[in-house]
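Lay summary. Proteins are chains of building blocks that fold into shapes, and those shapes determine what they do. In this project we predict the shape from the chain. Here is one chain we studied, written as its sequence of building blocks.
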Amino acid sequence: MRSLGMALVLFLIIRTFLVEAFQIPSGSMERTLLAGDFLFVNKAVYGAQIPGTHARLPGFESPRRGDVIVFAYPKNPELNYVKRVIGVPGDTVEMRGGEVRVNGRRLAEPYVQRVDPRDVYDPEFNWQRDYLLGGPGVARDYHPTRDTWGPLAVPAGKYFVLGDNRDNSADSRYWGFVDAAAVKGRPLVVYFSYDREAHDALPWLTDIRWHRLGSIIR
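And here is the predicted shape, written in a compact code that computers can read:
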């Protein structure tokens, strides 16, 4: 019983402060991450949150542009989202015809997947007016679309994130910035993966993506 108790305490410490398992439910990060991927996430790198408080342990670094991060979804903190950091505090971010620009420079994005050429407007984009560069006059005539918006100023303590599957991702374009306090960690590796689209009786047993096991996430 003593050994079992110590093992349980050690497990809880590791899960709370060091590494936690997450799974990918949707295709918003394809090709980098697939629906059915199970990840180990490094919680210590940005500083794990102390349970029952708003305090965090010191982190080794802050999220950087290009990092894939796990965070609490701003509209429902009970849900965990995985996206890629595009803009860090102090950056200006924009998109022109699907091309992302940060601080006026085109961002090289070899990880992006594009599958739908339609460029559509969504009323959810209207939050962007409060962060638009150029003043009230520009905001009044602002009409953002999925592939053309900004430039937006990223506030202190916030991050702008996008899904790698750029045409099929609910991300910062729709619901705004991610608060630094909501960031939970950085994915490390895919430890298990199966095809969620398979119609077999036990896809998690018969449709394992063996080639993805052990994949490093970049």
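What the prediction tells us: The mean pLDDT is 90.
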